[in-house]
Amino acid sequence: MRKIIFHIDVNSAYLSWTAVEELKNGGKVDLRQIPAIIGGDQKSRHGVVLAKSPSAKKYGIRTGEPVVNAFRKCPNLIMRAPDHKMYHEKSQRLMEYLRSFTEEIEQVSVDECYMDFTEIADRFPSPQAGAEWIREGVKRKFGFTVNIGISENKLLAKMAGELEKPNKIITLFPDELEKKLWPLPVSELFMVGRRTAPKLRKMGIRTIGDLAKYPTDLLVREFKSFGMTLHAFANGMDDSPVAA
To answer: Which of 34, 112, 120, 229, by CA, is between 20 and 30 Å from 143?
Structure first.
């Protein structure tokens, strides 16, 4: 039986959860529909951007940048301070809901988890149909959206969920790598960070496809054992289990 793994990720979790809470308490404006961020203090403009709305993203605002920079890009930006207690409660309720489908859940952050869908796949017409049921259930029950990436291992499921946002269901099976994954810049590959990407580009490796086809002995010479990992990931190989 082929494994079916879901990667489930809340879209702009801190901002979405704050927006849902404000609307529940009588708020008139949905933060997800305007240029808004979750960061530090509105008056002092200290701190960094923890989450951003799609509208804020259009101004070039990035997660992790200083709040003061974000306001330079968009003077009319709305900011809310984070409420980590509330985020924890939202996360806990989401995970409880997902475990009503299967206990095979590995939570990897407050807003992100893997689900081994294999044993319950026969309850649905297709993995996509099962993901749609879950996605719509989350939206109906909690008021926020999730991305669901689908594949046969955790790596590709996560990469699938990153291909397009928000509120999407995307597959990335091995036979889809050449079309969906390999044309992407090598910096988009999981585990390729700020230091690794420039080194790969100097080696003439510009896309994930370039990396997938690059001689492994040359990668090992440059990156030691990590070179084997990079090559495996570029080819969609990952045997790590969902650790429930």
So the answer is: 120
